[in-house]
Amino acid sequence: MEKTNKKRMLLADGLCLVVAAIWGTGFIASQLALEAHMSALLIMTLRFSLAALTMVLVCLPGWKKRRFQDFKAGILPGIFLFGGFYTQILGQSHTTVSHCAFLTATNVVMVPFLLWALYRKRPPVSTFLLTALTLCGIGVLSITPGSFSLHFQLGDALCLVCALLFALHITTLGKATQGRDVLVVNLAQLTTSAAISALLFLFTDLSSVSQADLGRGLPAVIFLGLFSTCLCYFLQTLAQSWTTPAQAGVLLSTEGLFGSLFSVVLGMEPLTKNMVLGGVIILTSVVLLEVFASKANS
Q1: Are the CB atoms for 193 and 78 separated by under 8 Å?
Q2: C-alpha dihedral sign at 32, 15, 159, 281
Q3: Farthest CA pair distance, the chain
Q4: Segment 8-53, tens digit of pLDDT
Q5: Going by fewer Cβ within 10 Å, which terminus of the chain is more open, N or C?
Q6: Residue ranges of the chain with pLDDT lower than 50?
Q7: Model pTM score
Q8: Which helix (H) or strand (E) is 288 found in, with range?
Q9: Angle 20-103-174 from CA coordinates, rounded to 5°
């Protein structure tokens, strides 16, 4: 039984890294959609709606055997998922990209404290230390020297709210997956995010459609909907049924590292000392996390 649990945890950690890698490519797809003059809310509505529709098709076989309790469990994570994306969009429009990237990444250190506060589950000291080390790596990776001022703006506050909402998503999703049908939980969170995005888009941003070059932007949005959203959030949901939210948080935070790596490989930006140093720090955190987890389960 212990060997089975250890194998599942290793598989879960691998899935989290796969998710982070796909999310890294998502940065490029999102940029292509924005360059096609598609608004952020339009992108959110299309990507979540496409992902939810795909999950409906996946869940239809054997639908009568699915439980409403499993769907209900995914609604709260879906609300936090939408909130994280939306506050990130608002925050980025009122601050710099480096501020937004770093402040959003602070969710990695929030997860262990939320687990402790909400569920009375205090992670080991090594988890707190490694999440802090990961955040340092993200800071080195994402912040250009001299670009990060100490002036705290409205956008910075919104990005911190965004980080809290993403941390709550990871934390509540970990709870929602326990003993549940992960397909239905994922369907619920994607449907919830799609519904809120669509309502907000219809009431506040409908006029932006006329400015969008849909022929140019739709392929990128389809990639975001099918892979960065539908597939990734299913894999994350599955992984979190086998590993801890704190561990998942550290592994998922490598998204920025993968995004930088793909940008360099595709010639979109040059390789810098910051990228190398930040990448080494993050990879060290991930390796140590696996070592400590392995010792805890042995």
Answers
A1: yes
A2: negative
A3: 59
A4: 888 998 999 999 889 878 777 887 888 899 988 999 999 999 999 9
A5: N
A6: 1
A7: 0.84
A8: helix 273-297
A9: 50
